[in-house]
């Protein structure tokens, strides 16, 4: 039986862009309200909007195969799900930490299957994508070990 959500079309590019912009503003405002010393969690969350945008662009790229798109689509849905391991509704933008962990794993999987140019051309962030992924993966392993999402993703992608 096909899930009714999987048969629905993706939101329009305009709606995706609106969500991306709202997410960036929300994360930026949250970071401004943090103390002047930005902790590692805040640095992690800072990349959530850009990673979400990258996943949505990869989902629409015709060069990505269906199996990889299924993983990418799962990453997009995890961002949009109202209930996850760290729900944003309860934790605020800090709840994007688990979304970032899922996104990093999915993007790394895509990078291992396709030339990096296929992925990096969709990157909208200010920093180099591979440097961002490396930074997030290095510090993220510590966070992933503490969060159920990180453990679940590692088991799922093995």
TrEMBL record:
Domain DUF1232 stretches: 69-104
Record's subcellular location: Endomembrane system
Higher taxonomy: Bacteria, Bacillati, Bacillota, Bacilli, Bacillales
Pfam families cross-referenced by the UniProt entry: DUF1232 (PF06803)
Topology term for the membrane: Multi-pass membrane protein
InterPro entries: DUF1232
Keywords: Membrane, Transmembrane, Transmembrane helix
Domain of life according to the entry: Bacteria
Membrane-crossing segments per the record: none
Record's protein name: DUF1232 domain-containing protein
């Amino acid at each position: 039986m096909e899930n009714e959500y999987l048969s629905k079309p993706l939101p329009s590019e305009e709606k995706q862009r609106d969500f991306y912009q709202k997410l960036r503003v929300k994360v930026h405002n949250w970071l401004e309200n943090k103390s002047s010393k930005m902790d590692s969690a805040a640095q992690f969350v800072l990349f959530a909007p850009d990673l979400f945008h990258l996943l949505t662009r990869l989902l629409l790229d015709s060069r990505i195969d269906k199996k990889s798109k299924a993983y990418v689509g799962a990453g997009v849905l995890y961002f949009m799900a109202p209930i996850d391991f760290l729900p944003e509704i309860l934790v605020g933008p800090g709840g994007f930490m688990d979304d970032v962990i899922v996104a990093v794993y999915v993007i790394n999987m895509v990078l291992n299957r396709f030339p990096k140019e296929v992925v990096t051309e969709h990157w909208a962030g200010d920093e180099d994508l591979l440097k961002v992924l490396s930074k997030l993966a290095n510090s993220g392993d510590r966070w992933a070990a503490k969060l159920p999402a990180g453990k679940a993703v590692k088991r799922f992608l093995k």
